[in-house]
Write a structure and sequence with these properties.
Strand content: 15-25%
Number of helices: 10
Helix content: 40-55%
Strand order of the largest sheet: 7-5-6-4-1-2-3-8
Distance between the termini: 18 Å
Mean pLDDT: 77
Shape: elongated
Structural class: alpha/beta
Radius of gyration: 25 Å
Largest sheet: 8 strands, mixed
Amino acid sequence: MTTHSLVIPVYRNAENIPSLAAALDGLNAKLGGDLEVVFVVDGSPDRSGQLLVELASKTPYTCKVVFHSRNFGSFAAIRTGMEKASGKYIAAMAADLQEPPELVLEFFRILAADRADIAFGKREGRNDPALTRFLSNTFWSTYRAFVLPDMPKGGVDVFACNRRVLDAVLAIEEPNSSLVAQLFWVGFRREFVAYARKPRLHGKSAWNFSRRFRYMMDSVLSFSDLPIMLVLWLGAIGCAISLVMGVVTLIARITGYISQAGYATQIVLTLFLGSLILTVQGILGLYIWRTAENTKRRPLRIISHIVSGGRGS
């Protein structure tokens, strides 16, 4: 049985494959040749899959190339890799090498020393454009406030865990959820390792605004009751405001300050309460839709085929 497994989701990373191959060769050497790499090609439209199949035939480490039937997202790809990994310790990192491979070595040392059951990379610096840094910091600050207060300020992109954690996470079969939130939710002993994120040398990240927004919504609706609590307070405040305005209008009517029923007041109240009702229905609708998705029991991803190789085969 392999001791160290590394899961790498792949999407539009053809230009990174040569650099990635060299980094993995070095990582395998530092681990004494005891490395298994599970690449998961997540419906990538470029030549990433073809290049990895060619690489798998000559790698000095055990290698699997798993192909999704279409793009299911990077977290679904990591989960697939975790399912197919056979190591005692399992790490996950991106194919763009923005997280240093040396970080994975430190994770494995922590797990082997039994200091923790799961190790996270804690990003403390990043060589990205100012706008990218601002958007990322805003995203993760919002995530920490609404979903996981324990989340590091820079978020989590790389981690490693033992099989106890892996089994606990794989027992969760929820679509439209968050793998990172699940890793925190299952508990166990944690340790964080600080690192500085490197600049991306090739290609462009697929982690765009729409994916970030979807990820945020999945996390909030799966692991937080904040939207429901906001709706509750909005409803309470709306009722209080409506009651006060109703009392004021009634007193003004009795004392003669209003000779007719206030048209403006009626419009304001109608618009306010109508908007409040629509807000409540929208948020409840999101929860109902996700509940319906869970009852469908569709697979979280579909694997089209797997190519195995390595050890110079």
